[in-house]
């Protein structure tokens, strides 16, 4: 794909020194900084907001301090942040997550995010970053490149050679005990080694590698610590599996569910709902592939909250 603004721009691996510039790229999309005072939103200068308050506008990329922690975690977990530079100033950032997900996706590179400095949008920087993803995926021997995109950006990715493949159905399910065989396993030495090659039939909004990294990406920020992340390792109907829960301090308590296993979507979902029920969690958000949902919908006490599309570009037939 041709780019309007390739001349003078370079793309390289990002490091900790890039945190402030990457933060500026993300901050450029925030039109108004404010503080919540009850039901009111009161305008406040960015510098007067705490790190936790800034987090609420878009996560770790909203402060150089937390962006540095995030980049550090990415690099320690052998994932791949890249930055687009124009005259040594960051004008775009993207993060790649590489992992082996089993038969459908194979070895895949997932574009976890892609941001361009707002005033430079529409000048080919985003397309250049996507091209970088495809070239890097090819060099890594990947079979596919995937991305989870907001509907407003689907057309952009389609122009970059991606197609919408499948639909994810988001459910709010009541927990209860199901007839599924669950045997606890000791925790492994490495989450990466345990999940390598396993399909992720529940909770795959981004990619398996993205969600494994998410389990390890930690911050001492109160807004981040309002939720709790738990992991359990079990055999589900004889299949070694990992279940991960993001639990929220609400009344009644609820959790988001992620599952890695060859046991199949129905068994994984029911095992997760059973374990949560035993711990007093009332409701769970479960994301299923559309085909899996229609096959098991009648066996779950769940309501559809929405649906999401996933985009894929195959590099190998």
TrEMBL record:
Coiled-coil annotated residue ranges, if any: none
Matching InterPro entries: Acyl_CoA_acyltransferase, GNAT_dom
UniProt cross-references to PROSITE patterns, sorted A to Z: GNAT
Pfam families associated with the record: Acetyltransf_1
Domain (N-acetyltransferase) ranges: 9-187
CDD domains (alphabetical): NAT_SF
GO terms assigned for molecular function: acyltransferase activity, transferring groups other than amino-acyl groups
Protein name as it appears in the record: GCN5-related N-acetyltransferase family protein
Annotated source species: Methanocella paludicola (strain DSM 17711 / JCM 13418 / NBRC 101707 / SANAE)
